[in-house]
Amino acid sequence: MTAPGKTALVNVRVFDGHRLTEPRTVVIDGPVIGTDPTGAQEVDGAGAVLLPGLIDAHVHLHGPESLDALARWGVTTGLDMACWPPELIKSLHELTGTADFRTAGLPAIGPDGNHARLLGLPAEAVILTPEDARRHVEARVAEGVDYIKGVAEAPGDGGPAPEALQALVAAAHAHGLKTVVHAATVGACTVAAGSGADFVTHVPVNGVIRPEDIAAMRAGHQVAVPTLTMMEALLAGRAPIDGLLASVAGLHRAGIEVLAGTDANAQPGVPGAVPHGESLHHELELLARAGLSPVEVLRSATVLPARAFGLTDRGAVERGLRADLVLVDGDPTTDITATREIRAVWCAGHQVAGAGR
């Protein structure tokens, strides 16, 4: 990676959150987007498209290699949904010149669900009662997490009791933190929709989300992170993905905000392999198949997750924001697969070596 300096990207068409601009100049001034090209190294974009750095709204980080893989594919921010111990999080925050991240730290799970069986989470992750949930939030707040993650399961599937999840959400909100609730089955979606969480991640792998749960999510102003890529991997060789796409289509028709997230991970034992970085481009293509327009898909990985997670310094190509940028060939506002045609990536002004591979 090159150190951030001053670079003028000339003759680039900028995605402004709604459309492409006419060719213009964008200045990278250290870690932020500037306006004065004086003294800058000039790079001719030759009419290529400049996107805000992409945001994956559901990843799992395992080390620096996770962040580097995200950065190479233009994913300049990863929203981590389970990272521990705190010492690992601290070490990742000390890195520069690679993808940035936010994290939930240790998630809250039930005693007998899939997360308890597969992920090797420490015992302190298990919540049985509302008091357990409140203690969990206090511990995560002390560690400095950015939001709280809970795992819903269908009744009888070993997840936290609904009242424990509701207490988790209430305690997080009392500390000014948003909450994400995992729901990977039809029954779990019902629990998540009633939890009061800000975000529901995944769509059901065993059917289509119920209309009444979509209505509850809309009434509660919940945001959806479908992770179609992971759910497709779980169904591979067993069933088509029509139900997954139908769930997203239903959420979208109802006016529920949909964010792009992949569940990218390198966790041994997890039944779905989803690589960091490249998978987000597949996720964008699946969202388009579910009925989102290319512009809506681009928004789902830029301005919308930045706004939803309170990341006010990114998500757009505007003066004073972080110089998180992706230069691509083609026009992703008409053909979403063009996001794969990466020429260059910058993370807070650092140009990423090996971008696009």
Automatic annotation (TrEMBL):
Pfam family, one: Amidohydro_1
Signal sequence, renumbered to the chain: none
One of the record's GO molecular function terms: hydrolase activity, acting on carbon-nitrogen (but not peptide) bonds
Amidohydrolase-related domain residues: 49-352
Record-linked Gene3D superfamilies: Amidohydrolase, Urease, subunit C, domain 1
InterPro entries per record: Amidohydro-rel, Metal-dep_hydrolase_composite, Metal_Hydrolase, Metallo-dep_Hydrolase
Protein's UniProt name: Imidazolonepropionase
